[in-house]
Amino acid sequence: MGLIAVQDRRERFEALPGVRAEREAFRVGVRRAQLEGRIARGTAGGFYSEADIEHARQALARLDAAAGVAA
User: pTM value?
Assistant: First the structure.
């Protein structure tokens, strides 16, 4: 199979609704873990300031709202 055909096949596969949804769910999960870790480290007396912690909480709330999760 040629390089162009492989690329076309990959693009068609990635355009499938199930693949898009799975990729988006993975991205949201990774971002959620990053934000929750930042909050946990900050509240445990870590490197992050109160402003950083509040910003992470707001970002987590926006992420939940975009994903349709009730707060």
Answer: 0.67
